[in-house]
Design brief:
This protein has 12 helices and 3 strands. The protein is mainly alpha-helical and about 325 residues long. It folds into 2 domains: about 10-250, 3-Layer(aba) Sandwich (Rossmann fold), CATH 3.40.50; about 255-335. A 3-stranded mixed sheet has the order 1-2-3. Helix 6 (about 140-160) crosses helix 12 (about 255-335). The longest helix has about 80 residues, at about 255-335. The mean pLDDT is about 90.
Amino acid sequence: MGMHRSGTSALAGALAALGLDAGPAEALMPADAGNPEGYFEVTSIAELDELILALLGGRWDIPPRRDEGWSARADLVPFLEEASCLVAQTFSGDRFVLKDPRMALLVPLWRRVLGDVVVVLIVRAPAEVARSMARRDAMAPLTGLSLWSAYNRALLEDLTGMRVHVCTYEDLLADPRGVLGEVAASLQAFGQLDSGGDLAAAAAHISADLRRSTDLDEAELREPPGEIDDLARALSALRGRHDAFAAAVPPAGAWEGALISERRAFLDAQRSIVTQFEAVVATLEARVGDLEADNAALRTQSAELRGEMDAALTELRALEATRAVRWARALARRPH
């Protein structure tokens, strides 16, 4: 788990190289310019997570509200059942690596689906994440920082009591074999990985070229707000294995919630407009249906009238033929 643009793909690929099942190639999201080595992300599960976020009033870049009892909503049950089915269909055994950054916002739900799993949490410097998102998504720097904070704060709260190993993206790039060796040792201690994994093959998935967003031109990224620095330090201090995860969550800045609330309001307005358009379209479709029904009735009536007209013409022609024969005979008897 981890925030978008934090190295979750590279780490998932490395864990797959260590022997964990990442799912069949055809089920995985294809590589693209954003991730040339691939995402190691099950497409159907990522799509399901996006549907769940939409049901909760958000999406990947607009974390939904975390109201009391949000994860116990009854309307989430069908989605959790679908998640269980997708996991069963995708992975053949019980040792697999499942990765989707959206899961960071949905940990309580996935804990219900997967049970007692191990989380490998990767954390990247917030300014680099925000810069990467600015490049990929044209996102304002402060918005990127607020999303980095929202994802990681949710993880600190929701991973409580779980078996967790924390690493950083910077450490992973600086010493791939060393960091992956620590991760592998934790997974072995947790009974999730056999010894003897190929660390060299796993480390080959990690390249310093992955770190492309270090040129921080924006002032907000060169000197991020103090709340972001505090959270980054708290996360960095958690590196290593946790048999029962517990962490204090530094307070968020008021500006963080305000930015995300503004994005939620914009999303709500967009959805309201879409709902209005859908209502108009439904009205027009109903009118089209009525017109089509009227048209069908008129066609039936026209066909019936045409049938009556054809019958009348047939009768008239028969009558005219009878009269013509009678007149012809009468004329034939007349003296010339």
